[in-house]
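Input C-alpha cells:
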C-alpha cells in the first residue's frame, strides 16, 4: 500500500480542515476551496445530513498560493464572500 498517495488524497471534515488551515469553520466555508458534499440519508429516521469533506491537497494548494512572506509583494487578494 502506498502511504504517500493515501496522505495526499486524505479527506478531512469541515472542522478538521478549519483547524488545519488555522481558521474557524465559518471562515473556511467562505473561502474558495473545493470540497466534496455527500448527502447521507437514514432510512430508519428519514433524516438526511450533509457531509462536507476537504482534500488535504486542495487545502495545501490554497495555503501555498495565499501565504504572504514578509518583505514580498502580495500578488493577489482572496475575495471572501
Amino acid at each position: 500500500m502506498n502511504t504517500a498517495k493515501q496522505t495526499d488524497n486524505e479527506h478531512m471534515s469541515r472542522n478538521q480542515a478549519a483547524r488545519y488551515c488555522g481558521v474557524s469553520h465559518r471562515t473556511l466555508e467562505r473561502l474558495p476551496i473545493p470540497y466534496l458534499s455527500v448527502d447521507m440519508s437514514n432510512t430508519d429516521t428519514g433524516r438526511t445530513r450533509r457531509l462536507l469533506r476537504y482534500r488535504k491537497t486542495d487545502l495545501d494548494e490554497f495555503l501555498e498560493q495565499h501565504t504572504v512572506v514578509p518583505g514580498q509583494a502580495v500578488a493577489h487578494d482572496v475575495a471572501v464572500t
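The beta strands are 11-12, 36-41, 48-55. The chain has a mean pLDDT of 84.
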